[in-house]
Write a structure and sequence with these properties.
Subcellular location: Cell membrane
Distance between the termini: 41 Å
Keywords: Cell membrane, Membrane, Transmembrane, Transmembrane helix
Strand content: under 5%
Radius of gyration: 21 Å
Largest sheet: 2 strands, antiparallel
Number of helices: 13
InterPro entries: ABC_transp_permease, LivM-like
Pfam families: BPD_transp_2
Shape: globular
Protein name: Branched-chain amino acid ABC transporter permease
């Protein structure tokens, strides 16, 4: 029921006064946060360099659509392939390490990708890749209209969101959760955990790339901030704030952070980072499982208390 209500709200958003470009930007970051959550929340792998995959796909999609004449859907597919290819290379190097070593390798590789994006001539350097057209979907439907573009982004978001739910609930997803809970036990059961983790890493980077390509089409540019390490920290913040290991948590976290950034940017300027940091500290102290995680935990408490009452009733009748 909550899912249908959320979908209805998303469909109605442009008609109830929500600026479509803001909603599209938030959906792109929600997609990015869902990709990160698939890796950290359901597999237990903390990547400090996930922005690199989103940014590389943003540049790839933007350049192919603007300079090579690709249609939007082909540009997005190419961006996803770029991100997945980079994810495969980085994953093959990093996946054999655990904990902080895995995180540091992903950060180091992401810094290398950032340097390439800074130096490569087709990225525009510090000026970024500007003037990316939205084009026509399948060569027929113009996406210049914000409303048409919004429903295109929403359709992709819903499809990928359902895909992630399907993956997590599949036997493959159950193995990922087993690896997250107790990797040595998963190994003892005969699973090739490195292969499972590598596939999860590539899946996550591909979805992050899709988010980056969509963001470029929506806003019409790709910049160095898309591949900067600070964006990797931001997606961690979104996921933790919404609820790590929940399906809706990253979406709620992304909308919260993007909404705060848009609301506060004109009012407090550069202090927006300090205010969001303070809000994050308060939320961590008050909602340790994140907004959605805390909500789910409180709903489960009464249900968990019911079985405990049953034995007492049996004793009275006896």
């Amino acid at each position: 029921m909550a899912g249908w209500a959320a979908l209805a709200l998303f469909v109605a958003a442009p008609f109830i006064g929500i600026y479509p470009v803001f909603a599209m930007k938030a959906l792109c970051f929600a997609l990015f946060a869902c990709a990160f959550n698939l890796l950290l929340g359901f597999t237990g792998l903390l990547s400090f360099g996930h922005a690199a995959f989103m940014g590389a796909a943003a540049y790839g999609t933007g350049w192919l659509v603007r300079s090579a004449g690709f249609t939007p859907e082909l540009g997005l597919i190419a961006g996803v392939l770029v991100a997945a290819g980079l994810g495969l290379v980085v994953g093959l190097i990093a996946i054999r390490r655990q904990g902080i070593y895995f995180a540091m390798i992903t950060l180091a590789m992401a810094q290398m990708i950032f340097f390439i994006c800074l130096q490569a001539p087709f990225t525009g350097g510090e000026d970024g890749l500007q003037g990316v057209p939205r084009g026509k979907l399948f060569g027929l439907l113009p996406l210049d209209n914000d409303l048409a573009m919004y429903f295109f982004v929403l359709a992709i978001f819903v499809a990928v969101y359902l895909f992630i739910i399907r993956v997590v609930h599949s036997p493959y997803g159950q193995v990922l959760k087993a690896i997250r809970e107790n990797e040595p036990r998963a190994i003892s059961l005969g699973y090739n955990v490195n292969r499972y983790k590598l596939l999860a890493f590539v899946l996550s980077t591909a979805i992050a790339g899709l988010a980056g390509g969509l963001k470029t089409l929506v806003l019409g540019f790709a910049t160095l901030s898309d591949v900067h390490w600070s964006l990797s920290g931001e997606v961690i913040l979104m996921t933790l704030l919404g609820g790590l290991g929940t399906f809706a948590g990253p979406v709620v976290g992304a909308f919260t952070i993007i909404g705060l950034q848009n609301f506060l940017a004109d009012r407090v300027g550069s202090w927006v980072t300090v205010i969001i940091g303070a809000i994050f500290v308060v939320c961590v102290l008050a909602f340790r499982r994140g907004f959605v995680g805390e909500f789910i935990a409180r709903r489960k408490k009464p249900a968990a208390a019911e079985p405990a009452a049953a034995p007492a009733q049996v004793e009275v009748h006896a």
